[in-house]
Design brief:
Elements (H helix, E strand, L loop, with lengths): L1 E7 L2 E8 L2 E5 L1 E5 L11 H6 L5 E4 H6 L3 H6 L3 H5 L5 E4 L2 H6 L4 E3 L4 E4 L6 E4 L1 H11 L3 E3 L11 H26 L10 E6 L5 H12 L5 E4 L8 H11 L9 E3 L5 H9 L4 E3 L2 H6 L3 E2 L6 E2 L19 H5 L2 H9 L3 H27 L3 H11 L7
Parallel strand pairs: 4-5, 4-14, 5-6, 6-10, 10-11, 11-12, 12-13, 13-14
Antiparallel strand pairs: 1-2, 2-3, 7-8, 8-9, 15-16
Helix pairs in contact: 6-7, 7-8, 8-9, 10-15, 13-14, 14-15
Family: Belongs to the queuine tRNA-ribosyltransferase family.
Catalytic activity: 7-aminomethyl-7-carbaguanine + guanosine(34) in tRNA = 7-aminomethyl-7-carbaguanosine(34) in tRNA + guanine
EC number: 2.4.2.29
Length: about 375
């Protein structure tokens, strides 16, 4: 159940109640692709860092360990030792990212596994069955994510097929939830809006999927080749056509700046690999812009990554020590960096929620963007 608490312009402040607990939005979902955050971060750590929802990847869990095995072990929550909500993507993004290893038909998609090359078929029904075996809180519909710069004719045909796939996903999830012995018989389905950068295709698709009265809706196919300005234009056009009384999830986005712009446009769920991926390479987020901890300027710098930050890393360790660990390729360095970035993202979302609660989001966004001007700071 989605409870809209407050709005400021198109920005939304809400609560979303699931079988695995209630979360506060806007929120950032931490990406644990194969059931873990890369960087040796535990589920206990994630709670300390303010994570409300973890996101895991259907395709990768299917080809590694296997969803049937995870079901036999009690489902993904028990497997990961995580008692808060989990969102599983559908495998649809791999239709985009594994373009050289796939064939798309009406029935579904044939893949070649990126691990050993064996043939995999996945369609709407297969994706729902895998996600049902995992027992996630939120399952994403199986879709195709066309390149943002694809030709109009291809995008239209792709979106029409994605709609037909969504109808099949909804029917299959209802069937699975009614079966005896499912890991999570209260699993819910989010639909995905597609349409590349064609506003009219996006709007028509949004109208059609809204009629299916799903528990939530995502906007996919952005941050896959278009400019930030094109992304914001699509959000301006499409978000008003998605139900305001349901969560709006912008998939795979993005930078702190992207998040602030999207919240203003009515988005309240986000996920992105940036905080963990960039951290593993020494790129760290602060309220004054990104820093590269490997730079020589931090060799003797005994300050924390960000002064005033309450994350476990900044409470204990210096820039100099973290730089030393990263230069020495010590795993602890990556872990400390990932923990800082995940805390930064989750704390930024908390700051956004507080600003919305207090009716000052517009000023908060303006000041935060001015501070995060993209320049590396001392």
């Amino acid at each position: 159940m989605y409870q809209l608490l407050k709005t400021e312009g198109r920005a939304k402040r809400a609560k979303f109640t699931t079988v695995h607990g209630t979360v506060e939005t806007p929120l950032f979902m931490n990406v644990g692709t194969v059931g873990a955050i890369k960087g040796a971060v535990s589920t206990e750590d994630l709670k300390e860092l303010g994570c409300q929802i973890q996101l895991s990847n259907t395709y990768h869990l299917h080809v590694r360990t296997g969803d049937e095995t995870i079901r036999e072990l009690g489902g993904l929550h028990r497997f990961m030792v995580w008692d808060r909500p989990i969102l599983t993507d559908s495998g649809g993004f791999q239709v985009f990212s594994l373009a050289g290893l796939r064939r798309i038909r009406e029935e579904g998609v044939t893949f070649r596994s990126h691990i050993d090359g064996h043939r995999i078929f996945m369609g709407p029904e297969e994706s729902m069955r895998i996600q049902s075996n995992l027992g996630s809180t939120i399952a994403m519909a199986f879709d195709e994510c066309p390149d943002a710069l694809s030709e109009r004719d291809y995008v239209q045909k792709s979106v029409d097929r994605t709609y037909r796939w969504l109808v099949r996903c909804k029917e299959e999830m209802a069937r699975l939830n009614a079966l005896e012995g499912r890991v999570n018989p209260q699993q819910i389905l989010f639909g995905i809006n597609q349409g590349a950068i064609f506003p009219d295709i996006r709007i028509e698709h949004a109208r059609r999927i809204a009629e299916l009265e799903l528990p939530g809706y995502a906007i996919g196919g952005l941050a896959v080749g278009e400019s930030h300005e094109q992304m914001y234009r699509i959000l301006d056009e499409v978000v008003p056509y998605l139900p305001q009384d349901k969560p709006t999830y912008l998939m795979g986005v993005g930078t702190p700046q992207n998040i602030l712009e999207a919240v203003e446009r009515g988005v309240d769920f986000f996920d992105c690999v940036y905080p963990s991926r960039n951290a593993r390479h020494g790129q760290l987020y602060t309220h004054r812009g990104k820093i590269n901890i490997k730079n020589a300027r931090y060799e003797k710098d005994m300050k924390p990554i960000e002064e005033g930050c309450r994350c476990p890393t900044c409470q204990t360790y210096s820039r100099a020590y973290i730089r030393h660990l990263m230069k020495a390729n010590e795993m602890l360095g990556m872990r400390l960096c990932v923990m800082h970035n995940l805390y930064f993202y989750n704390h930024l979302m908390e700051e956004i929620r507080n600003a919305l609660d207090q009716g000052r989001f517009a000023e908060f966004k303006r000041q935060t963007l001015a501070d995060m001007d993209g320049n590396e700071r001392k």
